[in-house]
Amino acid sequence: MFWLLATLAYLLGSLSFAILLSRLFGTGDPRAQGSGNPGATNMLRVAGKKLAILTLLGDLLKGLLPVLVAHLCGLDIQQQAWVGLAAVLGHLYPIYFRFRGGKGVATAAGMLLGLYPPAALLAICAWLLTFYLTRTSSLAALIATPLTLPLLAWQQPGALLPMTVLTGLIVWRHRGNLRDLFAGRERHF
Q: For labelling, which of 21, 54, 94, 189 has a CA lying 20 to 30 Å from the CA of 61?
């Protein structure tokens, strides 16, 4: 059951709502505009608030649903976290879009919401506060994701290893943003 759910989670995660919505509404491929990232932040830049919100909701749900299904199927918290990570991997490296995906932040938030809502709330609050203070989405993501690890280590230690891997992947996917942050060139809202 675990491997089946992980495979299905990856396939679900590979659905890029930014690309699908941009095709549906004729706004152009977000990978060729703005930051080049098919995620909610870039959709806000290139396609407007409505499509950004729809992208955010779609990306959140594709992280949340696999974890909830894994829970309903009786998988333990660590297996649920690995299934959720498979969905995030699908978002990062989508099989349907030549493995050119987003940065995984919203999908990771959905995964975390399914695993342990207090950690998701912590991440969302940290993201919002950082974004409010800096107007920089990438910095908000790079701060919010690692902040969940101590709470998970304390309350849900079974989810810690998959979430640590997830944190590493999110930092890796933001490596260009890190370079731009250190050079003072990162995009702000």
A: 189
* Sign of the four-CA dihedral 91, 96, 101, 102: negative
Per-residue pLDDT tens for 128-154? 999 999 999 999 999 999 999 999 999
What average pLDDT does this structure show over 40-44? 92
| Exposure class string for 6-28: b at 16+ Cβ within 10 A, else e | bebbbbbbbbbbbbbbbeeeebe
Tokens of 70: 């894994």
Alpha helices in 93-135 (DSSP H): 105-115, 117-134
Element containing residue 65 per DSSP (H, E): helix 49-72
pTM score: 0.94
